[in-house]
Write a structure and sequence with these properties.
The complex is a heterodimer of chains A (567) and B (340). By secondary structure, chain A is an alpha+beta fold. Chain A has 15 helices and 24 strands. The radius of gyration of chain A is 43 Å and the shape is elongated. The longest helix of chain B has 24 residues, at 261-284. Classes of the chains: A alpha+beta (567), B alpha/beta (340). Chain A: Pfam families: SpoIIE (PF07228).
Chain lengths: 567, 340
Amino acid sequence: MTAHSPVTTGDELVATPAPALLRAALDAASEAVLLCGTVDDKILLVNTAAATLVPGLAPGGHAASGPLPGLARAVASGDDDFTDEYAGRHLHGRRRALGDDHYGWYLRDRTDEVVRADALQAERARTAFLAEAGRRLSASLHQGRCLRITAELAVAHLADAAIIVLPVNRRHSQWVRLVAGGTVQEGRLRENVLPGVPGLVEVLGGFPPIPSKWLDAAQAPEWLLPDGFGPIGALLVTPLPGNAEPAGALILARRGALAQFSTEDEMLARIFAARAGAAISAAGLYREQVDTTAVLQADLLPPELPQPDGIELVGSYQAAKDALRIGGDFYDVFGPTEKSADTVIALGDVCGKGPEAAVLTGKVRQTLRALRLVEAAPGDMLRVLNQALLQSTRQHRFVTMVVGSVSRADHGRVHLTLATGGHPPPLVLRTDGTVEEVPTSGTLIGAVARTVVRPADVELAPGELCLLYSDGLTEARGGASGTEEYGEARLRDALSECRGMPGAATVERIRQLVSDWVHGGARDDIAMLAVRAPDRTQLSLRTGARNASPFAIDAPRRGDRRVRQRT
Amino acid sequence: MTVPTSFRSGLAEDYLQLVGDSDEYGAVALVTELLDAGVAPQRIMIDLIARTQARVGELWAANEWSVAREHAATAISERALAAVAARTMVRPSRGSITIACVDGEWHALPVRLLAEMLRLDGWRVDFLGANVPGQHLVTHLHQTGPDAVALSCMIATRLPRAHAAITACRAAGVPVIAGGRGFGPGGRYAQHLGADAWAAGAEEAVQRLARNWPPHSPDPQLSAFLGDEEYTYVVRHRGDLIGTAMKTLAQTYPRLREYNTRQLDATTEDLSHIVDFLAAALYVSETQIFTDFITWTSAVLDARGVPPVALRVGLEAVRSQLHDYPTAVAVLNAGTHLVK
């Protein structure tokens, strides 16, 4: 700038009209410029761009009393910066001192910028909303929870109230409703009230949704929203798309006379509803599967055990580590019948795993149930079962199992007759802590036509216990190396330590020891069935030896205190 | 504890005697009489059954009771609890809650007690029992859609699995309330593992769940990963660490070679505890998990007349293999300092 520039010759501008050249230069600029006097804030010059942008601005006027409140505030407070809105345009003004006596306001139209920023922000909010919706909706396979999540998301981001109505099932529709600030409510609607809600029947029928502006919110029935919600300003009914048929309808309501759903709102609601609908229908499919599986599983899961007088029966079944809790191991107990006072017990292991094996266990259990009715002895039951399996199974599958009949004997004793077919023989825990193997043996069931079964009799005194178990127990791999089998020796030791414990505690303890042994590693099915002759008071517990050291590493110094009995 | 006026003096001792003698009928008769006398079932559960169970644990730790007697007493208390529960029906007025012990956790009685307390408070309760694998728990959540999960962990070595379960439950959209000693003093580790809440006992849990539930919590994935490469190393080399420590011990104590399987298993298990508690301490970044374990173990060993050198030698046998892992060594050192 030189001394001749207009800035330093401002006085001349006041005295005389601006030189034509200066005026032309300012008018040609795209930026809007107001020149003002420093002393009185009077507008001296308004260039063409400024006059176009804000027609109310004129030379001679006062900067603080023009049509721009933002400018007025900036002038009053001496700010060098202001933003304002005028006739739908977003303006940004900067003050620049032009010498001591003058200053200029340079106005910029930032409408496009603001609109872009708003759009970006809205887009980000939509993206964040849809991302949250995706995350939360995909998390649950439970339909009720999916519905609740849908309502929560809709109320947080789209409307003051959300109602989800499921398709009609047996003349009724389930609904879930949430009003902002409230809690989720659920209920059922009769089919004949649904037409009361504008657009609902169309959406549930799979027809295209009706735009919100054509839905008369005033027609919404009173039951749609709780008392106190107030008049509905705008209503939007969006389909929840499902598996080739609607998974339901999402009804959104906004309060207040001025409320509306814009086209963008409707689009967003529709995109959200697509995600919600997918989650709700997937959860519906999952529920159907679960219901079906539950029906099929019901007969395959371990039974509730009868508790015959004078005999303590405890079962435990742990499926291999998968979500379906059925497998190839099983046990069953058949209570006394009219013909026989004996209780029949069975525990077995079908070769193979998972549902196929479980189905065969179901057949075996059913066969045993029938055999039990014809009063067969355990050995005979195994022989007949062998024939039945050989004739029925298409695949080559065999079973190992123990069958026994249990009856009460004199003086609180319990008598067992046990027969095994290729199964580990049961163990008996005596009152003195010794563990014996039941001397019974036999060949696999369902493998060859001729089986050899040698049954054995066992008598349990009060407090004594007989444990039937599947080889998943002794073959559980773990220990320090993670590959060592638990083995029968450890099982015998563990059982011996359970002397005097109730049957339930004994079975639980062995489960626990094996679980600790495998340290969360892969597990095979494990089934256990314990028969115990109950006793009221177990004196051996009170007089029993105290625990030896849990820390065996110092045992060399402590001689016989090495034996360890703790967890 | 303030003894309710309806508890006559010596009642707790009588009950302890009954469970200690495996007298199921006596124990059940005693709690039934209390119910008939108008004692609130909650008081019987908390002030009698839970208190006695704590005594039983102390008696075992002090080597007064054998492990068999402890287990038998616990079984009797479960029957007594079932008897109280069977006689008290409450119409459900709150939401539904699933209650489980974390995978590998077998202390079912405190959790069963919580289940009954919540039932009395109007919750619909699904009690999944002890040792619930995370997968089974999450499957159950998808099938039943409860409003909350209560997860119990009594032993800190299960914390990594508790963490996996908490994250999975929360990812499935179900808030988790944690409970049990394993979550540390004041439930400090529970928060670290992303649980929505923590309760010291059944009564606190009932109160916590009765108001302001579910709490607002951040995205579960934010706390989905804990532990570092030292934790990973210790866990992946668990077998080697224990095996090598056993060999080191055999050199120090030649008679270890004459041990029978049972004794070897016991020693292996003790070393596993050292490694597992070390891993848990590294996972949660809390040395206290390890030092608490050492303090507790020292007391248990002391009650059994075992000299502390045994523990120190075990710690050294593990530490000597972890020279390149400074945090692990620091944790082991902190433990060693506590051994007199």
